[in-house]
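[Automated response] Your request has been received and processed.

Submitted sequence:
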Amino acid sequence: MKLIPIEDLDTILDLTKQHWSLVKNKSLFITGGTGFFGKWLLESFIYINEKLQLNATATVLTRDPEKFVNEFPFYSNVSSVKFLKGDILNFEFPAEDFEFIIHAATEADAALNSSQPLLMLDTITAGTRRVLDFARQKSVEAILFTSSGAVYGKQPADITHIKEHHSFPVDINNPNSAYAEGKRLAELYCSIYYKHYNLPIKIARCFAFVGPYLPLNKHFAIGNFISNALNKQDIIIKGDGTPFRSYLYAADLTIWLWTILLKGDNNIPYNVGSDEGYELRSVAETVAELNPGVKVQVLTKASPSKPVERYVPDISFVKKKLGLSIKFTLKDAIKKTQSFYLADEVI
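Generated structure:
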């Protein structure tokens, strides 16, 4: 079983070390702990907890603990982490106290958003309220909600980077808006619970990422590109390859999430992502350059009159307020992700 590279865990520790005294002898409750974000948060927590001798514990809510531990037996020998079987919509509240809560359930899933929009919407909204009601019963010091850049709506062509104060229309008559509108409503719940119940809620608006554990067989374009390359297949872009995207390496993501949880201001959203935007065809070409023999095919000719599509954050606020920065280049992030998956027989 592969784990996050030690050098990445060391980087996360080095760049968050000053914050971890707040966690000493404390307990964390984590939803979404078995997903892409969750695996990075869990493995970094375990590593830092041991290195700094924090004597902290984490409880992870998951629908199928046995399946996860069978797939990742590493966790069967970790005394600082335990798993709670349950669904985000109706899990039973544990009796013990928790000082920190990370609500990272419901990552972006285009297939689920398209095929089961009601489930997507309910999971985000009702699930978030369930977690907030749970937090009201505990003496929590901080709650982190991983929101999404989708809350901004479609980025206009003339705006190269989205700032935290921006807000653009979301088509509420389109069922595919379930994810974006759900995250918007979840943030509203967070604001209400902050104002009326004084819950110390931190909000991370997450964009696009790359790194170990990123699914290579879903709708994430860069994951599909890497999968093609590792299988010695040409990268085929069905569109024109002109939409701009940016990708933050997962170690940077993890550093930012821990920092926002432990040092961020309450009820203030922070953009989490890279501000270095690239056309998708350029991203594909970068992957191909790292894999000799792999070519990029763009199936649709770009139209000069077509408005530019972008999904790129402005991160000047989080840099200024929390002193965060990007430590890994896109090329390094792709190399690291490929190295993680290279041992797999089937990508």
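Summary generated for your ticket: The longest strand covers residues 142-148. DSSP finds eleven helices and 14 strands in the chain.
If you did not submit this request, please reply to this message.
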